[in-house]
Amino acid sequence: MFEDYEKKKRRQIVFMKSILDYGMGAIFLLVGVVLLFGDKLNIRYGSYFDAGAEKIFGGICLVYATWRFYRGYKKNYFR
Q1: Residue 39: which residues within 8 A CB-CB, separation 6 or more?
Q2: 46 within a domain of the structure (yes/no)
Q3: How far apart are CA 17 and CA 19, in angstroms?
Q4: CA 15, CA 20: separation in Å to the nearest integer?
Q5: Quick check: is 53 in a domain?
Q6: What is the mean pLDDT of residues 12-19?
Q7: What pLDDT shows up at residue 77?
Q8: Closest by CA position to 66, among listed 34, 29, 33, 31
Q9: CA 34, 31, 57, 23 torsion-angle sign
Q10: Would the CA dihedral through 41, 45, 51, 52 be positive or negative?
Q11: Cβ–Cβ contacts within 10 Å for residue 21, how many?
Q12: 37 domain-assigned
């Protein structure tokens, strides 16, 4: 009975972490797209950096978003 409770608890934790990874991946994907293609999409935001730094940070955000999506898909949290 205790093992069943632990398995259920672990499945719930994995599900919540997966949802968190997908959500954070979507946020970082959106930030990366805005930073990379904001000028082409006519999105105006206060920019404190030059265009090169925005492109680099946008690329880093896209790579990190890809990692978060992959981590949410694989669900290797307790292995």
Answers
A1: 51
A2: yes
A3: 5
A4: 9
A5: yes
A6: 93
A7: 82
A8: 29
A9: negative
A10: negative
A11: 20
A12: yes
Separate counts of helices (H) and strands (E) for the chain: 2, 0
Mean pLDDT of 22-31: 96
Residue 38 has a CB neighbour count (10 Å cut-off) of 15
Number of domains composing the chain: 1
CA triple 29-35-37, angle to 5 deg? 95
- Confirm if 58 and 30 have CB atoms less than 8 A apart: no
Residue whose entry in the numeric block shows the structure tokens 């680099």: 56
- Containing domain of residue 56, as a range? 15-74
* Farthest-apart Cα atoms in the chain, separation: 60
Provide the strand spans (E) within 1-79.
none
61 part of a folded domain:
yes
- pTM confidence score: 0.82
Handedness of CA 70, 74, 78, 79 (dihedral sign): negative
Tell me the per-residue pLDDT of 41-56, one tens digit each, with 9 for 90 and over: 887 777 677 878 889 9
Single-letter code of the amino acid located at 23: G
